[in-house]
Amino acid sequence: MTGITLLNPANETVLLAVEHSTVEQVDQAVAHAVAVQRKWAALAPAERAAGLRRFARAVEDDLENLARLEVANSGHPISQARWEAGHVRDVLDYYAAAPERMIGKQIPVAGGLDVTFLEPLGVVGVIVPWNFPMTIASWGFAPALAAGNAVVLKPAEWTPLTAIRLGELALDAGLPTGLFQVLPGRGEVVGERFVTHPDVRKIVFTGSTTVGKRVMAGCAAQVKAVTLELGGKSANVVFADSDLERAAALAPSAVFENAGQDCCARSRILVERSVFDKFLGLLEPAVKAVRVGSPDLEDTEMGPLVSAAHLAKVRSYVPDDSQVAFRGSAPDGAGYWFPPTVLLPGSRTDRAVTEEIFGPVVTVLPFDDEADAIALANASEYGLSGSIWTRDVGRAIRVSRGIESGNLSVNSHSSVRYSTPFGGFKHSGLGRELGPDAAAAFTETKNVFISTD
Ligand code: NAD
Question: What pTM value is reported for the model?
Answer without folding.
Answer: 0.97
